[in-house]
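Render ATP adenylyltransferase in 3D.
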Amino acid sequence: MKDYDGTEYENVESLDDFAAVPDAFQRLWTPHRIAYIQAGQKPGTDVCPFCIAPTLSDEQALIVARGTHAYVLLNLFPYNSGHLLVVPYRHVSTYDHADDAEVAEIASLTQIAMRVLTATSGAHGFNIGMNQGEVAGAGIADHLHQHVVPRWSQDANFFPIIAGTKALPRLLGDVRAEVAAAWPV
């Protein structure tokens, strides 16, 4: 079998060799994403970036807002410009272990993040979610965090898969400064 660039692979089965019922879905295989899964925080690791971040300056840690029980920072490896993470200060691994105050503040900070990103970047929509546990794709499985990813009707979300490149038109420091300045006090 030959790859898109002409590379020949041995012992690779063609999809034509499998029994299947055609459906309306197209499959977009992204084997390069396994690096994120395999390189995630290992259980029992003492170094947690979400525990270290609040001890640094907001600029160093890319923090845009600090609450009582949780804080908001830019994702160091964003899917889109303005990709935020809402993180409890307490080192807790899953949502069901967060206490009522943490859950309430995570929800409140997520709402504010959406409003601020809409105001600063004109986001048309959002992907919001938590990957709970390593098997669910959490890059840092030991510390709960919620993703707030702004989306636009014209964003290039297939560019990373096709070209192996992310188009991020703004520097992280610039986005952090803008979002932090627009965050209500």
